[in-house]
């Protein structure tokens, strides 16, 4: 009985804390449109230091946004900056801890995509989850008018240039030049946006274009 009560109290504290943090963000940025189910996780006294949102930012249902100025496993400060009318859609996970994440004007992080500003180091004989974070590759910069389609992962150290498109299901491990469509695991260039046919940025057509680019017989190794 006592154990169940402790669990109930802990869950209540978590829910209350999340409501307070969400309310503070919306009060600080009054043009923010944020679904009530979205989770904001940041240091209570660090709001102004770690989060900067432009006008009319949108955050969809069940998105999780983690912004820690300092963490135990890294000396690199975390920060989140979003430009005007940038959007984080349903179920997306943005983790600006151990590095800074910038999302430019009009850019969209689509459903269930993940942005990770820092990763744990990997060394033999060490517990990976409790290892110091890699400080040589940190942060993510996403330019203006970028479309990161659904279920993508963008890893630390990546810059995506203005007007780029990332096809659904991709894993982005290196920089993407402006104005290009990339897709696959790991993501690679499909074509320039200027050369795209109507509909190429949708999930199916972007991946199909990627398969066409790499040639027959290699679809399974690269399909998102």
Give the tags:
UDP N-Acetylglucosamine Acyltransferase, domain 1, 2 domains, single chain, 224 residues, 19 strands
How many individual β-strands?
Answer: 19
* Average of pLDDT: 87
The third-level CATH topology of the largest domain is UDP N-Acetylglucosamine Acyltransferase, domain 1
Number of domains: 2
Instruction: Tell me the helix content.
Output: 10-25%
Architecture per CATH nomenclature, i.e. the level-2 architecture of the largest domain: 3 Solenoid
- Spell out the helices and strands N to C: HEEHEEEEEEEEEEEEEEEEEHH
The radius of gyration computed from the alpha-carbon positions, rounded to a whole number of angstroms, is 19 Å
Spatial order of the strands in the main sheet?
A: 1-4-7-10-13-16-18-19
- CATH class of the largest domain, named Mainly Beta
Globular, elongated, flat, extended or rod-shaped: what is the shape?
A: globular
Q: Tally the helices.
A: 4
What fraction of the residues are assigned to beta strands by DSSP?
A: 25-35%
Question: How would you portray this structure in words?
Answer:
This protein is of the alpha/beta class and 224 residues long. It has 2 domains: 2-162, UDP N-Acetylglucosamine Acyltransferase, domain 1; 179-224, no CATH class. It has helices at residues 2-28, 47-50, 203-214, 219-222, and strands at residues 33-34, 39-42, 51-53, 58-59, 64-68, 79-82, 87-88, 93-97, 100-103, 108-109, 114-116, 140-142, 147-148, 153-154, 158-160, 165-166, 171-172, 180-183, 188-192. The protein has an 8-stranded mixed beta sheet, with helices on one face. A hairpin with a 4-residue loop joins β18 (180-183) and β19. Residues 202-224 have low confidence and may be disordered.
């Amino acid at each position: 009985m006592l154990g169940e009560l402790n669990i109930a109290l802990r869950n209540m504290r978590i829910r209350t804390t999340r409501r307070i943090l969400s309310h503070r963000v919306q009060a600080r940025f009054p043009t923010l449109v944020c679904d009530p189910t979205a989770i904001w996780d940041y240091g209570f006294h660090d709001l102004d230091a770690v989060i900067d949102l432009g006008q009319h930012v949108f955050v969809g249902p069940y998105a999780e946004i983690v912004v820690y100025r300092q963490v135990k496993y890294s000396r690199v400060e975390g920060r989140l900056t979003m430009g005007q009318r940038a959007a984080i859609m349903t179920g997306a996970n943005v983790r600006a801890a151990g590095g800074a994440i910038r999302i430019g004007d009009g850019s969209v992080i689509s459903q269930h995509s993940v942005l990770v500003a820092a990763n744990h180091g990997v060394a033999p004989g060490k517990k990976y989850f409790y290892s110091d974070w890699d400080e040589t590759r940190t942060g993510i910069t996403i330019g203006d008018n970028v479309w990161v389609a659904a279920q993508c992962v963008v890893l630390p150290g990546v810059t995506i240039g203005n007007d780029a498109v990332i096809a659904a299901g991709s894993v982005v491990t290196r920089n993407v030049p402006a104005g290009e469509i990339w897709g696959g695991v790991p993501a690679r260039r499909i074509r320039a946006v200027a050369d795209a046919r109507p509909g190429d940025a949708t999930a199916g057509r972007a991946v199909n274009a990627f398969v066409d680019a790499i040639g027959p017989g290699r679809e399974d190794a690269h399909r998102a």
